[in-house]
Task: structure prediction
Amino acid sequence: LGLNGSVSYQIVPSQVRDMPVFTYVSINPNSGDIYALRSFNHEQTKAFEFEVLAKDGGNPSLQSNATVRVIVLDVNDNTPVITAPPLVNGTAEVYIPRNAGVGYLVTVVKADDYDEGENGRLSYEMVEGDRGFFEIDQVNGEIRTTRAFGENAKTAYELIVVAHDHGKTSLSASALILIYLSPALDA
Result:
């Protein structure tokens, strides 16, 4: 009762990633409510912990402490970035031999996403262009021919390829792939 039952709270000084814990969180000394003092990014800080000291107002004062562990959940905040084939202003140029047969590997589209789990798992698809001549593997991004090119085939084909993640709100990146048939049969 009285001062013996009056509890105050404080954070024990410590470091989180070489910064004082007081730059990360604060505590209400009367209620013990803990507040974030910054926004957290899972890719930078996955978790951190600190000590909270609870002390009564009695004489002598009695105290106890507990460890608080903060786990920062990943959100889908990173957009995929297409890293291959090399893009110039969002476009890649690829050359294949005119006599390329069915299943010929044209190129491999690769993208990076710094999120984790489903937020970082990528799928690939062709959304526009000469899709009747090519297919893309949704998992590994391989673009292959689906037919042979005859003598009268045009010399250039276009595909718009999208890499999208599997976050709840999916993020994506796209590229224009220009595919040229080399003039020589076996180039």
Q: What stands out?
A: The mean pLDDT is 92.
